[in-house]
Amino acid sequence: MPTFPASRLADIAPFHVMELMARARALEAEGRNIIHMEVGEPDFQTPEPIIAAARASIESGRVFYTPALGLPELRRAIADFYQTRYGISIPAARVAVTAGASGALLLTLACLTEPGSEWLLSDPGYPCNRHFIRSFEGIPIGIPVGPESNFQPTPATLEAHWTERSAGALLASPANPTGSMLRNDQLAAINEFVRQRQGQLIVDEIYHGLTYERDAQTALQFGDDIFVVQSFSKYFSMTGWRLGWLVVPERFVRDIEKLAQNLFISPSTPAQHAALAAFTPATINILEARRNEFQKRRDFLAPALEALGFRIDARPDGAFYLYVNCSELTVDSDRFARDLLDTAGVAVTPGLDFGSNAPEKHLRFAYTTDVVRLAEAVDRIRRFLG
Fold first, then answer.
1. Which end of the chain is more exposed for a tag (fewer CB within 10 A), N or C?
2. pLDDT at 360 over 90
3. Cα(339)–Cα(373) distance, rounded to whole angstroms?
4. Quick check: 324 and 305 in contact, CB under 8 A?
């Protein structure tokens, strides 16, 4: 007799940050003033040129399905963006517009994952990745990473975990939750390691654009056999539009198209028309000003948290997170985060969401609110600590 739900659901944990956010919203409904530092969502509104493009599209009344891989003109605009920003020429035919970066990852893993195949991931890392793999009967293999490698894998750590069942590796640079980045030489070495073993490399670049001391370089420079995941959510401030893209190795384009037809039919039509305005000079000027603001927030918050007793072991080169070691202040980061929310009205994410590599010692702070609110959060935490 079959049992329901499917047994693999036992391996898929809740997305704890979303549950924490629900608790924060419930407290707000009771009249509490909550400072949100838990969710990886920019606080900036979608830039006006993007909103105007969406409005014009909707008012036209032609809100119909698009091709499964997206509007041809948007795919061309994304390909042109790689030429403009990175100096990399890619055919628009290799670009698949998706329902957010999550949609891109689902398509990629549906295409590449065999039952029982293993995928190597950083631990700590974005929690949904391991659950995407498990959803297609693959096995996520967490590689513990720490300060000694700036919370990124190396060829040596990949080799230590590579087996005959390994299908490939999924990297992120900048990474969630740490904000750490791979240098070009590190990314090239990892790509060569995976390629020599006839594996597949997937690189999550959704925080590109939100880097500070140095610009991120796309993995596409190292070959046309790499899957690259991107998103309109973070740099482009379009989280709720649920739009992203995937750069696909040519030999897999037809497979990705078949999957997209069946799983999604097409990405959101209004969101795609809106995104056509994302690459205009007017929009990029807005986004670059916001990048500068994120850097100011990071540079305020990092020393303020260290002064309270938190330790920052990862260099936050990009994204909008600080992954802090809280072991001098608590032995249970999950309990600490819950008490901090209930008592002080500050919402942060416990390490539990990001894997099994010392989660009880870590918290993630998202600097996705303005400096005034960040300063208030620091004051509340100081009082909470006594």
1. N
2. yes
3. 19
4. yes
Using DSSP's 3-state secondary structure scheme, residue 159 falls into helix
* Sign of torsion over alpha carbons 325, 357, 12, 237: positive
Listed in sequence order, the residues at least 6 apart from 185 whose beta carbon sits closer than 8 Å to its beta carbon are none
Beta strand pairing status for 346-347 and 35-36? parallel
- Cα angle 43-46-48, degrees, rounded to a multiple of 5: 135
Residue-range domain boundaries for the chain:
7-45+282-385, 62-278
Q: What is the CATH number of domain 7-45+282-385?
A: 3.90.1150.10
**Position of tokens 């891109």?**
104
Residues 6 or more apart in contact with residue 35 via CB below 8 angstroms: 345, 346, 347, 369, 373, 376, 377, 380
User: Following CA atoms 229, 233, 238, 243 in sequence, which dihedral angle do they give, to the nearest 10 degrees?
Assistant: 30
Q: Which amino acid is at 47?
A: P
Q: Which fold has domain 62-278?
A: Aspartate Aminotransferase; domain 2 (3.40.640)
pLDDT tens per residue across span 87-146: 999 999 999 999 999 999 999 999 999 999 999 999 999 989 999 999 999 999 999 999
Would you say the C-alpha torsion 282, 283, 288, 292 has a positive or negative sign? positive
Domains 7-45+282-385 and 62-278 share a fold: no
pLDDT tens-digit map of 327-343: 999 999 999 999 999 99
